[in-house]
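2024-03-11 09:14:02 INFO receiving multi-entity request
2024-03-11 09:14:02 INFO entity count = three
2024-03-11 09:14:03 INFO echoing inputs for audit
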Amino acid sequence: MYYRESGYYKTDYKSDMSLYPLPISRFAAFSLLVLFFLAAPVVMNEYYLTLLSLVAIATVGALGLNILLGYAGQLSIGHAAFMSVGAYTAANLATKFDLPFLITLPAGGLMAAAIGIVVGVPSLRIKGVYLAIATLAAQFIIEWIINHSPEISGGAQASIEVPRPTLLGEKLESPVELYYFLLIVAVIAVIATQNLIRSRIGRAFVAIRDQDIAAEIIGISVFKYKLYAFAISSFYAGVTGVLYTYYLGIASYEQFQLGVSIDYLAMVIIGGLGSILGSVFGAFFISLLPIAIRLFMESVGSIFVEPDVLAQSISQLRQILFGVLIIVFLIVEPDGLNRLWINIRNYFRVWPFSH
Amino acid sequence: MKFFTALGAAALAAGALATQASAKDVTIGLMCDRTGPTSVTGTALCPGYHDYVNLYNTQKKIGECKIVAHEIDHEYKVPAAVEAYQTYKSENAVLISPYGTPMVYALVQKMAEDKLPGTSAGFGTALAGNGEAYPYMFPIAASYYSQAAAAVKFAKDKLGGSLKGKKIAYIYYDNPAGTEGIPVLEKLQPKEGYELRTFAVPAPGVEMGPQILDITRRYRADFVISHLFGRAPSVSLKEFKRAGFPLDKIVGFVWAGSEGDIKAAGGNEFAAGYNTMQFAGVGQDYPVIQQIKAMYKAEGKPDPDAMQYTVYYNRGVFQAAVHIAAIENAIKAKGSCDVTGEQVRDGFYQIKDFTLGGLLPPLQITKKDHEGGGWVRIFQVTKDGYKPVTDWYRDYRPEISNLLIEEIEKAKKK
Amino acid sequence: MSGNMAFAIELFGQGVANGLMYSLVALGFVLIYKATDAINFAQGEFVMIAGIVISALASAAYEFPLWLALFAGLIFMVVFNIALERVVLRPLIGRPIVAIIMATIGLAFILRGIGPMVFGAAPRGLKLPIEDFPIIIGPFFFTPIQLLGAGISIIFLVIFGWFFLKTRKGIAMRAVADSHQVSGAMGINVERYFALAWVMAGIVAMLGGVLWGSASGVDTQLALVGLKVFPVVILGGLDSIIGVIVGGIIIGVAEALAAGFIDPYVGGGTKDFTPYVLMIIMLMIRPYGLLGRKLIERI
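2024-03-11 09:21:47 INFO inference complete, emitting structure
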């Protein structure tokens, strides 16, 4: 009824290649921007803005991992380690040289990308599970190096306090300001990814994912593009780390341990591999799930169990439910939340005349 | 996928329900880790906290104010802790109890901006005891610096009053918190004349045969100072015992000597002799613990399981007691229940002669010293529990304060 | 120097004994990979849940005698793994490796939640009827649990090695791993062999839970032993049982020597770091491990 694709004719190359070719998708993108930029800060209180801010950060990281895993097909269990590289790079630059975030943000990303290339080198020889384990090793080795180099980690407790980001001499301090800062970066990340995927590089990624030997035969330099994938993905991860650092005001290696890598894996898998919208869905879902479960248990759970037992069981149930959801999605809906969304959309596309 | 829709709807409904609070409520934001890497602590500490809050509410509400401790489990994850903090803020909490070093760091700036006081007993660097640098964070317990100094003093007493020529081994968990004892031990070395070697135990610390072998067979230490976390303390006890090292020549820092560690090592019989350092009293011989027991009895319930783990349970009681004492001072000063974070912070400075019959050390919190004096007490593991072998004590205060000044200078230069 | 030499020999003995106990945990991983091509990231959690069940049953709360607790633990692991294979892993057959890895990670979350929920989160000891005292054999220095662990590891490694090489079922299992479709066409009941592989992994995990639980105490942290599996299997080869022994011993010795001789110079613990460095080196020069099979890919 409302979602119509027919009747729009592309008469020149420009419109054929535009990022949002249909009026409906232009409208959707525009209204989402209005919603998040204008409506959200007005209607939402500080608490919900905090949630959205955390989701915005997670979105950037999830996009990065989705480029590597969903598009290029390279499994990485060391995503969080690249975040810590970005975080410490930015923290050191910001505290030692007083650089603004406009420099530290890309610098953190580039440093992570450089390390990402190093970690990606073995991907020439190994793939699948071997690569997964190699990235797991990278996670531990990067953690260890940061932890044992006071020059990087700032000595005491391996953490560096970072001043709030400043823009044009203005300190971004209030939740709304920080929210805008994070949202803008997240939007840039989404649009950049959309463009990347449509480019030569993006198509090469997909070819490698689907059949790397075949890709090589048709003339794609597999090694080069695998390294690109690692570099780009790590760049996103580095930026995510920088965002966490500025948002929390601290870089600390304990924020970026193995569990975080696994959370991000869960995001892209539950969200939908090889889907940009899926990354956003996944970031929302994994960030908000524990909160939803807690609220649910706090109110509904008290009917069934004693309050003193409840506090303990909330935590454990949440963990169990998290595991169950991952498995259920893998079995029932392997394409993740993005697939659910497409199903809903397709239903309404022909609604109410579904036959 | 109806299940997810239902879950979402229920969660929203729950959110609406959860925000009812009465004007007499004074909310404390209590963060816990019951499922993350330090769940062993959280599962005993947080029940202790709640029990004291309940006891307080049933016994002596002042001015009809009711203390509400809202617990959120953040699984030792920083974003979850930030979310929890915002929840507390939206509930107008007057005091935050963060849990875990990275979370303390992530929140300390925000808490100062929002003027919300909090405590970090057993976390963070020694530097945080400096009330001028961190006006809203109160470690309230001995820092690792104070613990290291107290350990040296204990070793000296144990080895006959002098450490000249004695060999001390420092075995530590290989993370920033673990290394924090080293500068103190190095600083005191020339004065006391002992030999020092350090042994790192990297995460996860489930196996440390080589290090223990080194301490006992190559270095042949006279005394061991152990600063381990998590699974590592119990493993170290087993390995020391197997290597034939006398356990009464070991003293463990505050995270290395709970009942859980002793049980996992093989029970009290096995670990008897091991010395543990504590910043809150251990055991159940305190009036407040007996009152909590009586409270459970009156409700016709058995004692909670967590209560047996007195090291962490009592720390929960300790934290709750200090928090409530500060809030109580603030309420008294203001004369009504709706106190602010700033007033509660001032309440911390007025805590005096408050030891709950020996469960707490004689804390003196001043504007300068948020550590409260750096008191510890050594409890030795016996066949059926713990026995105190020292009174609350501290030592080498001038050296520590010099070291703190040096370290703060160093941090500034960076 | 001679003092150092003697110490190095002692460390070597320790390393071999510990390495064999790592091998036992890694064996579960290899069994599953060999037979089903699945990567089990929850092997550490298997060890943990077995340890929790057995130590809880043997504790004051249930007062099972040790042999009964061990037996109950064994039954539990077998039933649990059969159910697991049926419910979680069978629907994922033929799916990309990342799906299976993620499913086992999800499983790890579930196990870490269920164990403490049912039996309590507090740590427990697991007391085997052996004493704790140093045993000195020649220049070597052992503890009783190490000798027991090493012994049990060797016995089971030999049994499973024999099973795969010599028995009809073992050969069928290798065929299944090679190609699900071809072995199915040859009349092998593929799904039954998958279940069998998971059961064997469960049995091994139960042994690992007893030994590691007894060595270091039992709570959810016991699962961290699982992180040692990866260096061991990469070094030895993902699908080689002899490789597991070799890899385990190399890792055990390397980390013992690193702790004894590298730590004092770098001012930090290199013990858990060294295995991963070794593993990376191995991945660069011989990704399929010392004794693993090299995979040849075709389009």
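2024-03-11 09:21:48 INFO post-check: The beta strands of chain A are 159-161, 166-167, 170-171, 250-252.
2024-03-11 09:21:48 INFO post-check: The interface with chain C takes residues 69, 75, 122, 125-126, 128-130, 132-134, 136-138, 140-141, 144, 147-148, 211, 213-214, 217, 262, 265-266, 269, 273, 312-313, 316-320, 322-327, 330-331, 334 of chain A (CB under 8 Å).
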